[in-house]
Amino acid sequence: MFTLCSYLQMPHDLMPGQILARGVGRHLLTHGFATVEELVPAPGLRVDVMGLGPKGEIWIIECKSSRMDYLTDRKWQNYLEWADRFFWAVDADFPVDLLPEGTGLMIADGYDAEILRMGPEQVLAGARRKVMLTKFARHAALRLQSFRDPGVGVDGISAV
Q1: Domains of the chain: which residue ranges?
Q2: Which of 15, 26, 61, 130 gets the highest tally of CB atoms within 10 A of its CB?
Q3: 118-130 pLDDT, tens per residue?
Q4: How much is the pTM?
């Protein structure tokens, strides 16, 4: 569950995938994107980073911190239908030859990222885009609300 303390952790307190997500978020901001982490587009799915661009484009970025992390991910193809573009974000030591060619690729660290390969565009249908924009807005608003009330998380109010 999201809390103010978990959000404000210093980079040395973050898990490897969270460090990559931080760099991805910083980089996408330079392209005019706002990002959220750990958004649930559908039951059983949770994306690492979702970016909302200045023209309403939606990108999903999956952060993989190791070969094993990638090899055990069996859900990534289910994310494709929820975004206009899909990317992997990995660190500079990751064996990128493991990643599928038809997907986007970013190299990231805790401070920035670089897009090495643009993910192919699969424009969302209008109804799906509306659903995702609403999910993005609600997710971001609940995270912001949790700054004022630590008992509020993306799933509602907890017993704090």
Answers
A1: 4-143
A2: 61
A3: 999 999 999 999 9
A4: 0.87
